[in-house]
């Protein structure tokens, strides 16, 4: 009888360990499924946004559709689009922005442009892909973005023409003071 009781206790302990492993695996599966569903929802929204972009009649509509996707679907606080008006122009100027609601923030953007002969422009000209606040190694670009564009977490996406020349810049990001209300912008996120 004593031997049987010891065997049952051992079996019970073994079953408890298996149950713990099963519950842990179930939780991990739930987390992965949630992440997959969120990613699938973004893909659907990207498809719909692509359809809207293809049917846009004016360039200003393209700007606003793009910014709306960043603000309302990706749930980031701020977005700005800079464009060079012509190949002869030396600067990228703001053509659209969203998320700047305080009057002092709007005033800060009014005359802001990115000079083609400046160090930040040259850095963006040679960048493949995009830059983030995490990938900026020398931090001079980060300082400029933080101070001029008023975002602490950010991603910069250079816009190029068919020849590969830099013609614009898309910036998306969040301020530190409102970070709790928006999606975290990380190198590996979305």
Describe the structure concisely.
With 190 residues, this protein is an alpha+beta fold. The chain contains five helices and six strands; from the N terminus they run ααββαβαβαββ.
Description:
By secondary structure, this protein is of the alpha+beta class. Helices cover 49% and strands 19% of the residues. The termini are far apart.
- SSE string, helix = H, strand = E? HHEEHEHEHEE
Mean pLDDT: 86
Tell me the β content.
15-25%
Question: Based on CA inertia axes, which overall geometry fits?
Answer: elongated
Quantity of strands, as a count: 6
Q: Reading side by side through the largest sheet, how are the strands ordered?
A: 3-2-1-6-5-4
Summing up helix and strand content along with how strands pair, one would put the structural category as alpha+beta
So how many helices? 5
Unreliable runs, pLDDT <50, ≥5 residues? none
Helical residues, percent:
40-55%
Rounded to the nearest angstrom, the distance between the terminal CA atoms is 60 Å
- The whole-angstrom Rg is 24 Å
Main β-sheet description:
6 strands, antiparallel
Question: What is the topology?
Answer:
Layout: H1 2-54, H2 59-73, E1 78-83, E2 91-98, H3 103-110, E3 113-115, H4 119-125, E4 131-132, H5 140-149, E5 153-160, E6 166-174
Antiparallel strand pairs: 1-2, 1-6, 2-3, 4-5, 5-6
Which terms summarize this structure?
190 residues, 6-stranded antiparallel sheet, 5 helices, elongated
């Amino acid at each position: 009888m004593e031997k049987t009781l010891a065997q049952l206790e051992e079996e019970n302990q073994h079953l408890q360990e298996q149950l713990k492993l099963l519950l842990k695996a179930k939780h991990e599966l739930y987390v992965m499924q949630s992440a997959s569903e969120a990613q699938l929802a973004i893909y659907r929204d990207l498809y719909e946004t692509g359809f809207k972009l293809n049917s846009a009649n004016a360039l200003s509509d393209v700007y606003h559709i793009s910014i709306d996707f960043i603000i309302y679907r990706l749930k980031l606080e701020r977005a700005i689009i800079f464009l060079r008006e012509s190949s002869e122009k030396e600067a990228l100027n703001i053509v659209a922005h969203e998320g700047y609601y305080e009057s002092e923030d709007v005033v800060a953007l009014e005359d802001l442009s990115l000079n083609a002969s400046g160090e930040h422009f040259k850095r963006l000209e040679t960048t493949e892909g995009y830059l983030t606040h995490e990938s900026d190694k020398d931090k001079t670009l980060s300082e400029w973005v933080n101070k001029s564009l008023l975002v602490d977490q950010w991603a910069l996406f250079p816009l190029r023409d068919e020849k590969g020349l830099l013609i614009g810049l898309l910036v998306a990001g969040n301020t530190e003071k409102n970070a709790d209300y928006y999606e975290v912008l990380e190198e590996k996120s979305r």
